[in-house]
Design goal:
Helix 5 (137-143) runs parallel beside helix 9 (218-241). The chain has 14 helices and 15 strands. The longest helix has 24 residues, at 218-241. It is globular and about 60 Å long. The protein is α/β, with parallel strands linked by helices. It has helices spanning 33-40, 52-59, 84-96, 111-123, 137-143, 181-198, 200-208, 210-214, 218-241, 253-262, 269-286, 294-304, 317-326, 358-365; strands at 5-6, 14-16, 19-21, 23-25, 45-51, 71-75, 103-109, 130-134, 148-153, 156-163, 168-171, 335-337, 340-342, 345-346, 354-356. The strands form five sheets. A seven-stranded mixed beta sheet has the order 1-4-11-8-7-5-6, with helices on both faces. 44% of the residues lie in helices and 17% in strands. The structure holds nicotinamide-adenine-dinucleotide and zinc ion.
């Protein structure tokens, strides 16, 4: 199997104002990392950044063999370490080890590592090139596209950061074997979102391949990652020309963020997205924007993929509403939602999001209660 380059040789490139980069998706990506480093970080002094958990998987050969050796920096795994303190510690390490302007960084891990190591790369010596090697499904289908890097602060997520695209992304679906079920499901929820907002054929393919996806069949996962990357890349680059379409990537997320906040962030993001997609499709049906039966079909697919279709805890409607109103995307006291009209198509009138009344929201919540 050869490495497949999405972008240069194929129709879609991850491109935006800050430049474009290839995303390689192949089941032998990790074993060819050395070659990728030679190609994209040539003549650089390369250092790999990973969280401790991923580094342990790598050392014990559970992730697959990495055909590269060199300096490694680690930090403790988990969202709570995506901080300015971790950024400072990693940066200081680079300084102490006398890394110069010729540094090249490899970010190996999930979205936390991608965001944190990407932010280190964005700021070190005013910016050094980095290669992203996502190892979670979420990082492959979502975080690796768009060039966002950054860290959290005690008051909120991703409040400090920079747009800093990598020189390339290498995604090897074989590494997903060791991913815990809940994290794997989270990536699947985003893939369902991609089909729902932009590609009916892809959505129907997900319906047909549900069992092979759950078995983590590398060839099926390769197609999934490729198609999701293409869709996100297409929407992100389209946004450069035609402002606002990027908002459709937020489908399901207005409700998801509210649910996550209400749960004190114990609800995994992917579970929130699944419930959010069902709820927001029900909303669109009630408003007469979507075909009847849409939310039911979306719920069936999500359920087959192991995602929740009912809230695991009782829902207090007024608390959920205020959590959604607090979301930074909902200015001026109205809740704005990107609405699906039918699988693969989004409502636009004339903007990509629509204000939704609180009574409609109240009613739709029953779908996931
Ligand atoms: N930059 C963006 O555009 C963007 C988009 C979406 C999400 N994000 C960010 O991504 C983060 C979430 O990413 P995540 O879900 O990948 O979390 P994560 O990076 O914390 O990874 C989850 C856990 O899985 C472990 N892990 C990683 N790969 C593994 C593997 N192959 N096998 C076994 N375990 C593995 C990690 O050590 C970690 O403990 C959030 O901080 C979010 O803000 C960024
Ligand atoms: Zn998401």
């Amino acid at each position: 199997v050869s490495l497949r380059e999405v972008g240069r040789d194929e129709s879609v490139t991850v491109a935006h104002a800050l430049g474009s980069y290839p995303v390689y998706v192949a089941p032998d990506g990790l074993s060819r990392l050395g070659e990728m480093i030679d190609r994209h970080l040539a003549a650089r002094r390369v250092i790999l950044i990973a969280d401790e958990q991923v580094y342990h998987l790598l050392e014990s050969q559970q992730l697959g063999s990495l055909n590269w050796s060199g300096d490694v920096l680690t930090f403790p795994a988990g969202e709570r370490f995506k901080t300015r303190e971790s950024w400072a510690r990693l940066t200081d390490e680079l300084v102490q080890r006398r890394y110069g302007r010729d540094t090249g960084i490899v970010a190996l891990g999930g979205g936390v590592t991608g965001d944190l190591a990407g932010f280190v790369a964005a700021t070190y010596m005013r910016g050094v090139p980095h290669l992203q090697v996502p190892t979670t499904l979420l990082a492959m289908v979502d975080a690796s596209v768009g060039g966002k890097t950054g860290v959290n602060t005690p008051t909120g997520k991703n409040l400090v950061g920079a747009f800093f695209p990598p020189v390339a992304v290498v995604a090897d679906p074989v590494v997903l074997r060791t991913l815990p079920d809940s994290a794997f499901r989270g990536g699947l929820a985003e893939a369902v979102k991609h089909g729902l907002i932009a590609d009916r054929e892809y959505f129907e393919w997900l319906e047909k391949q549900a069992d092979r996806l759950l078995a983590r069949d590398p060839s099926v996962l390769t197609h999934l990652v490729r198609r999701s990357v293409e869709i996100k890349a297409e929407v992100v680059s389209d946004d450069e020309r035609e402002s606002g379409r990027r908002a459709i990537l937020n489908a399901g997320h207005t409700v998801a963020h509210g649910l996550e906040q209400l749960s004190g962030y114990s609800l995994p993001h992917g579970d929130g997205v699944a419930l959010g997609l069902i709820d927001e499709c029900a909303l669109a049906e009630q408003m007469g924007v979507a075909d009847p039966g849409l939310s039911q079909r979306v719920a069936s697919l999500l359920e087959r993929l192991g995602l929740p279709i009912r809230s695991p805890y009782p829902l207090d409607t007024s608390r959920l509403m205020s959590a959604m109103l607090g979301d930074k995307k909902n200015r001026e006291g109205a809740i704005h939602v990107a609405l699906v009209t039918q699988i693969g198509h989004m409502h636009r009138d004339p903007t990509w999001t629509t204000p939704v009344s609180s009574s409609t929201i109240n009613q739709a919540i029953d779908t996931i209660r």
